[in-house]
């Protein structure tokens, strides 16, 4: 075969592979829209990949991409699939059956992933992968046949240029591209209509005025210093961390929460209306992610509306270990198969652990757990804040390891006392004179008693604390610094309500939260 012929064959092979991959994904997405969005092979394989990603890498992704980590993963999956599709296309123009068999193999992988996800509803979840793979395998077979020769399997003896069915290839390739795009768009719009019930159930939620409103946020909690964040984080600015590639869209009217397990003498299944009929509490609680590095952004403070979890548990007969209860761990399960384990003792010790229905006056946003999530002041999110919760099981730490615990994180993780400099920004230059240094400090459920700032290797100077809201919220602070020219290092540390100063010892987020002082360099001109 001549060099031109070989190159053309390679191009056509690569194009066939890409088109077959595109058609396979479109067919799979359309099927998934009909079956269940979570059964899509991209979502299922992506979810399986998230579950198997080494903790260090996952933590790195959360810290570097934050809320965009899922988008980056999805783009990564598409890029990998495109490369594999090209490879299969190159194989297919030489060995048609091998190329198609390769596509089918990916279908098997997708089907296995979809049916073994923790939220899988059964064998029907294999359908998107199987149908996608059949479409892709057939298209690759058909295209690669047209790409290499009109009639003969191999070019005629003595010929240097293998023939190709130009018209047949172009017709089929165009048709495949058009139909796949149509199928993809249809999948998207029908997925939208599937979510209609969830969206309308959320629009229909009227949160009653809380029986226990909680005290209003004191005006003095918010400092009016440029560069310092809002004391109450808006819903749209609130950080998001979870393993869900597709945000679960739960219909509140169909939602149920089951409470059962060790020491539950009266197991119950609650509806959303059952919760709405209970006395509601409203509390400001600062939520923090264990993956937050020193100085990091994975922390937010909202006013949550919900029902007391301790009351609900007590009505089911649950007693904390200190009162002789047999269960020391409460495992919350979400509709997407997440498991989060919290100490029963903490939930029932009088703090405002809650089943939250509202966030800053709104029903929970879907991304933050609609219709109901758990919150326990003082504990990192991965051991307390289960979103899209549907099941609560009372058990023991000895008997059960929750999702993140199976992945190297600690079983129990109270939030560490930490502080952060929000202004000035690192490496921004400022003029000599008074520079306002300000930020936040947090030690949820212990409160913040003192914040100190150090310039270079100087003495620790007391910062001025903004008014405390509650000991479950973060606290802003400021320090007017008489800045002199040159490069300087600013460091901050906080002391919590028990009198303990945060540790200077640097620790990575794994296994139970980062520690160490936040410190920045600034240039004074
Ligand atoms: N269902 C579910 N709930 C979850 C998670 C998750 O991955 N799935 N992540 C937890 C973690 S690690 C944190 S820090 C908080 C974050 O809540 P947010 O996204 O509302 O800020 O949710 C927790 N609840
Ligand atoms: Mo987290």
From TrEMBL:
Gene3D superfamilies for the chain: 2.60.40.650, Oxidoreductase, molybdopterin-binding domain
Origin: domain of life: Bacteria
Keyword Transcription regulation: no
Pfam families recorded: Oxidored_molyb
Keyword annotations of the record: Membrane, Signal, Transmembrane, Transmembrane helix
TM regions (residue ranges): 71-91, 98-116, 122-143, 169-187
Domain Oxidoreductase molybdopterin-binding: 246-403
Species annotation: Streptomyces aureus
InterPro entries given in the database record: Ig_E-set, OxRdtase_Mopterin-bd_dom, OxRdtase_Mopterin-bd_sf
Record-linked SUPFAM superfamilies: E set domains, Oxidoreductase molybdopterin-binding domain
Stated name of the protein: Sulfite oxidase
Signal peptide range: 1-26
């Amino acid at each position: 075969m001549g060099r031109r012929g070989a190159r053309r064959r390679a191009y056509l092979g690569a194009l066939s592979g890409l088109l077959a991959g595109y058609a396979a994904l479109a067919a799979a997405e359309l099927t998934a829209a009909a079956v269940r969005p979570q059964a899509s092979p991209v979502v299922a394989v992506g979810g399986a990949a998230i579950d198997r990603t080494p903790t260090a890498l996952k933590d790195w992704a959360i810290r570097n991409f934050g809320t965009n980590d899922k988008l980056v993963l999805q783009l990564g999956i598409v890029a990998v699939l495109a490369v594999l599709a090209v490879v299969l296309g190159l194989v297919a123009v030489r060995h048609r059956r091998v190329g198609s068999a390769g596509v089918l193999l990916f279908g098997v992988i997708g089907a296995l992933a979809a049916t073994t996800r923790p939220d899988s509803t059964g064998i029907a979840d294999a359908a998107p992968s199987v149908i996608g793979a059949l479409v892709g395998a057939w298209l690759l077979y058909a295209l690669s046949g047209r790409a290499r020769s009109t009639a003969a399997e191999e070019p005629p003896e003595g010929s240097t240029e293998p023939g190709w069915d130009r018209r047949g290839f172009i017709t089929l390739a165009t048709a495949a591209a058009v139909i796949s795009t149509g199928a993809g768009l249809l999948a998207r719009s029908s997925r939208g209509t599937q979510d209609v019930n969830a969206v309308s159930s959320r629009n229909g939620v009227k949160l009653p005025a809380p029986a226990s409103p909680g005290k209003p946020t004191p005006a003095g909690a918010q400092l009016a210093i440029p560069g310092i964040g809002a004391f109450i984080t808006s819903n749209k600015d609130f950080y998001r961390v979870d393993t869900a590639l597709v945000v679960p869209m739960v219909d509140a009217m169909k939602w149920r929460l089951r409470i059962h397990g060790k020491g539950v003498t009266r197991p119950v299944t609650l509806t959303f209306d059952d919760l709405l009929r209970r006395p509601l509490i409203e509390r400001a609680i600062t939520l923090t992610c264990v993956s937050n590095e020193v100085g990091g952004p994975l922390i937010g403070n909202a006013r949550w509306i919900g029902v007391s979890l301790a009351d609900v548990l007590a009505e089911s007969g649950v007693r904390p270990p200190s009162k002789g209860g047999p269960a020391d761990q409460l495992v919350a399960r979400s509709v997407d198969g997440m498991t989060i384990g919290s100490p029963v003792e903490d939930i029932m010790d009088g703090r405002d652990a809650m089943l939250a229905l509202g966030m800053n006056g709104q029903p929970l946003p879907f991304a933050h757990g609609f219709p109901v999530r758990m919150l326990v002041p003082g504990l990192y999110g991965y051991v307390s804040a289960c979103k899209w919760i549907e099941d609560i099981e009372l058990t023991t730490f000895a008997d059960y390891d929750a999702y993140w615990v199976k992945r190297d994180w600690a079983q129990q993780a109270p939030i560490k006392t930490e502080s952060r400099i929000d202004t000035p920004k690192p490496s921004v230059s400022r003029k000599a004179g008074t520079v306002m240094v300000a930020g936040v400090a947090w030690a949820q459920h212990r409160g913040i008693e003192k914040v100190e700032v150090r310039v270079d290797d100087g003495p620790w100077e007391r910062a001025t604390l903004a008014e405390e809201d509650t000991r479950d919220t973060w606290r802003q602070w400021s320090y007017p610094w008489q800045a002199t020219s040159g490069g300087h290092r600013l460091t901050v540390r906080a002391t919590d309500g028990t009198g303990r100063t945060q540790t200077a010892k640097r620790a990575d987020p794994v296994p139970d939260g980062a520690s160490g002082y936040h410190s920045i360099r600034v240039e004074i001109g």
